[in-house]
Amino acid sequence: MPLIQAIILALVQALTEFLPVSSTAHLILFPWLLHWQDPGEAFDVALHAGTLLAVILYFFKDWLTLAICGLGGKYPAGAPADYLELFKRSAALFCPGMSWTVLAAIAEIESGDGANDGPSSAGALGPMQFLPSTWAEWGIQGFGPSGTPSIMNPLDAVPSAARLLCAAGGGSSATLPAAIFAYNHATWYVDEVLALANEYGRNG
99 and 24 in one domain? Predict the structure, then answer.
């Protein structure tokens, strides 16, 4: 499919998703009207998944507030308002010298920024996929509500990940790969995190 067609259909999906008419129907109608080839079901699913991810990220603070309030807590005053701010403040406060993009890459690879909190096959939990035993050692109350730090709350999990990485050498570019390896013992994982972090850095 030509890139321009993909962009146009993505815009159609974005503009019609919240209308009381099926956006899937629009994705069928537009190619038919313009005599384009049917993009297929996989493309349709990818667009809907992208829309879902965009909604989750845009309303992150609202989802988090609802979850915290549903458990009887209150959203902490002064806490980061979104994942980007959370990554930046966590890196600056808990691991000076390490780029926030490393935390962002790990969160995306581990859980899709909280879209899949686990448990994993190994028993890891939360947006940063801590094993409970590792969390018992490194989990801290970062920006989360007062009380016991929560492995499931990104306001605690992301700062805790920054703390673990920093203790393993994440604050220095020379030892950053080793720190990431300490987080997840796989060389492919280190390469993937560094590549994604570099991409985030290039894109701002």
Answer: no
Residues 189 and 102 grouped into a single domain: yes
Residues spanned by the domain of 102: 78-202
Q: What would the two tokens of residue 85 be? A: 């701010």
Q: How far apart are CA 142 and CA 168, in angstroms?
A: 19
The mean pLDDT values, 10 residues at a time, for the chain of 204 residues are: 77 68 65 78 75 74 65 61 88 94 94 82 91 94 83 92 96 96 94 93 78
Beta bridge partners of 10: none
DSSP 3-state of 96:
coil
**Contacts for 36 with CB less than 8 Å, ≥ 6 apart:** 5, 30
Domain-embedded: residue 67: no
Q: Do 87 and 81 touch, CB atoms closer than 8 A?
A: no
Say if pTM beats, i.e. exceeds, 0.85.
no
**63 domain-assigned:** no
